Amino acid sequence: MLRIGYGEDAHALTAGRPLVIGGVEIESERGSVAVSDGDVLLHALADALLSAWALGDIGKLFPPDDPGSRQLDSSVIVRRVLELLARRQEGGWHIANVAAVVTLDSPKLGSLRERIQREVSGLLSLPDGAVGVTFKTSEGLAPDHVQARVTVLLQRTA
Ligand code: C5P
Ligand code: MG
User: Fold this and answer.
1) 10-residue block means of pLDDT along the chain (158 residues)?
2) Where are the beta strands (DSSP E) in 16-144?
3) Rounded distance, CA 79 to CA 29, Å?
4) 3-state secondary structure of 65
5) Ligand 1 centroid distance, CA of 31 (Å)
6) How far apart, in whole angstroms, are the C-alpha atoms of residue 77 and residue 102?
7) Which pLDDT value is given to residue 111?
8) What per-residue confidence (pLDDT) applies to 20?
9) Does residue 110 line the site of ligand 1, with CB under 6 A?
10) SS3 for 107?
11) Of all protein residues, whose CA lies closest to atom 3 belonging to ligand 1?
């Protein structure tokens, strides 16, 4: 049996904020405007996982006006989603693979791909090669934003 999950996220970019993508802090003059650390990739991943089981989205779990969401490390969000899923699902499900696209005009991220992929696969306890991340520019159409789109494929073996 298979299930698919899909999630998206976008943040505006501004000077003086960190740019964190897939748990990796990127050297950049601008970072995500956000209540949490603004990690678009992990936010889209969390929504992809929740959507696979029709459990809503991270705004429901971590309301932006909740003081607990402030400056939150987004790996905490993903871990909490994984815990929720482990409690809710019938057993036997595992993540087969994750495919992600990050759209950002600058800086270029290609040299960080393996680090980001490893960070995300580690967070999900997946082997190397199970998380693929591609990068796109917006071709100048959205130079002040960073965006991510993530699909997850889940497989039931039991
Ligand atoms: O958006 P575009 O097709 O022009 O991107 C060309 C290539 O630049 C991508 O395939 C990707 O390898 C790389 N890229 C990158 N970091 C970004 C955006 C694009 O490494 N922030
Ligand atoms: Mg976000």
Assistant:
1) 97 97 97 93 98 92 76 91 86 93 98 98 97 98 98 90
2) 19-21, 24-26, 30-32, 93-103, 131-136
3) 29
4) coil
5) 18
6) 19
7) 98
8) 98
9) yes
10) coil
11) 136
